[in-house]
Amino acid sequence: MPFRPLRKIFSPKSVAVIGASSRAGSVGERVIANLINADFSGPVVPINPAHDAVHGLNCVSRISDVPHAVDLAVLCTPADVTPDVVDQCGKAGVGGLICLSDGFREIGPIGRGREDELKTVLAKYPRMRMIGPNCLGVIRPPVGLNASFATDAVQKGNVAFLSQSAAFCASILDRAASEGIGFSCVVSVGNMVNVTMADLIDHLAFDPHTDAIVIYLQSLADARRFMSAARAFTRYKPIIACKAGRYHQSAIAAASHTGAMVGIDAVYDAAFARAGIVRVDQAEDLWGCAELLTRYPNRCGSRLGILTNAGGPGVMAVDALMRCRGQLAKLDPQRRSAMDDLFPSGWSRDNPAVVFGDTDPVPYSEAADVMLADHGVDALLAILVPQPLTDPDQTARRIADVAKAHRKPLIACWMGGSRAASGAKWLHDHDIAVYSSPEKAVTAFGHLVHYGRRYDLLYETPKAAPPVVVSDDRTVDDLLGGEGDVAEKESPQVWSELRSKRLLAAYGIDVTMPQVVRSADQAIAAADAMGYPVAVKVYAPELTHKTDVGGVVLNVSNAEQVAEAYQTIHQRSAQARPDIQVRGVTVQPMLVDPLGRELIVGAKRDPVFGAVLMVGAGGIDAELFQDSAVELPPLSESLSRRLLEQLQCRPMLDAYRGRPPIAMDALQDALIRISHMVAQHPEVIELDINPLVVTPTRTIALDATVLVDHEWKPIAPGDFPHLAIRPYPDQWIRADRLSDGTEVTLRPIRPEDEDAWTRMLATCSQETIRLRFRYLFKQVEHEMAARYCFIDYDRELALVAEYHPPAQSDDPAIAGGESSLIGVGRLIADAENHEAEFAVMVHDQWQGRRLGSILTDRCLEIAKQRGLQKIVAETATENRAMRTIFQNRGFQCRRIIGDDTLIFTLDMAGANADAESKQA
Prior knowledge:
alpha/beta, 29 helices, about 900 residues
């Protein structure tokens, strides 16, 4: 649904410039000049009491003196008066603001005070939104708007550019002017006191001129809104981001191995992957990547064919392909034979296909056609070097014709200077992505492949339902609600290994449970009872890393060694850390399995994205090797698999050199359980399991540390303030009965429901399909099913009715049958969580049993809980059942579209008042 708040900024009918000036080089003078030169069609009003006119436009003294409504005001005023100017704009009913003024939080405490004052004023006018302050401005070539003080003219294009740096934005505009790069929109976001990156992404999602977004990002504030907006956008169009500060180290001291191994940048990588965002390392890659993705938005495989008229550039392209982990396509015999016919004097007879000498445009273009037709080639890179008799222009024209005949990407690299320029321009003008070097072309291809993989991840449906993560709630409550086992009642609390493992065990995670002992004799007795060998560890809850003080002795095989380990641990700990209180030792069974592999699994609280989960190569050298991968919890089966695939040590988990593979299902189950524990308990701000030993038969935690901060508490059931992505809302699961007494389960849809959802639609009548979707289709494709089943629970709710056949029944066709989906009610909210579209469908077999009413009532109940103010529903005029359902619940028929469609709306505030009145 369109994002309304920014319409007055991006499509204004009138603009006022407050602080307009005639002084050459001033911000106020440049803004007026840019608005005039961009041919803005509406009135432009300069506002400055010290001037009568600016650039031939009559000035007024203040915003309240403007004789007509002002959609957009551009502020070029000093920082100290800006809050008062904003207040005047709010009183005058201005729709949107762009604040170019600097002097706010970027200058220190005084500026932060001004910015706080600015936020307070803006809060008085929620319908007036402001971009900035401290920004370059906004440029919208499709509507002739240049509300900025940029010095370069901007051409029309299909890519939106959002920059967190005004200086970087200016440099890109300078480059774009010289290279002919166009934009659908340019926004220098500034300090983002009122309009965020998420707001801009939501607005551009419905912009017909925008096919992709390029972002230069330095930091984020509202990660959850950003993730939700980005995930919605990348379902249909790409986002390419360049994040500054890739190697910036976290300023927060690490309390565990996990904290030391997870840097801020790794979390951004994980978040971008979940949001479907393609990340580039260098700013110059932004446009090459965007150019290719906007031309070829469909997914692309990694097998690249290379056609070149010079061997050296072909080798360079192969090197670049190997660096980005692509694949060199293999030509089939039929294509090689066709190439022989095209080049009787010889060619390389392999990929890269090197055509020797000065190549005629005809055979070169025909070779491109042959290679693109090969089923083993996913994309083709055509490289042309302007040798003495080469014709780059004619070759470009023929290559452009070849590209139009194929759906596969054709990427061009026209090397050289003036001789290649004309042909390169022809390719660019005819929608062929063209680059000046093989490395740039292959890098862009790598990003195209990467985008396809991330797009697939957005719609990847797990093979099976995730394990039912059941915790021992009483144990968990006792542990989290207790006073702890630390010396002082501090926050956060570092839990002992014993208490940490009890929490893991409550979530069904296999652990070696330690026994705390206070003397050598007690240690011997414990070891004798549990059996040798055992592990003996220091017991000091304040101590995070036991090995740092020599507090771990492994493979203890008899009573004498137990007593020796007890004394050794006390001596080492006292010498290394005399400031801590050693309360004894723990004794636990020693896992001896030569087939086991050690991993580290942990969680920490990132300051931007909240809880993150980490897995990596474990043991005492975990921090040394730094082989780890990060993901946002909670995990599904597919996400846990993807997390493990990112590890360099991943092959170690498979069979090799006679060692059998580890029990992958058990490992993924443990990861999923750990992730759910972290998701369900905001108090757990850090977790460290090292090592987590995985064997061919089991997964078991040998050591664990939990860090708890009781100041983190859920606000309400189902609320997850510490997560960047809202998890499955299981608080909305409930049982219900149809009018004939049949029991059904109402629950939010899951990605795992794709097969069941597809089966439901496949067995519905065409009439039911038409009434729900307003069009007919023969079969449900995976992409369509995934979009309906894989949803963002922050913005959408699909409530399914699930029927579970009884184990025993008089009807043998029903007894013990497979559960099925029999109806769906769907709410799709706008980005403001103000209005939602509602639709419901009931399978033909289950119609007439009040299921439509039950789904509608439950969806409306959830809409009320989420604070939605308006529900909009569309139905066919002949659908009497739905018309009755809507009318009985207070919907009003607001609009009739054609002869067959009715639009119903429900004012939630009015409906709630009516319900309370009836109840009274």
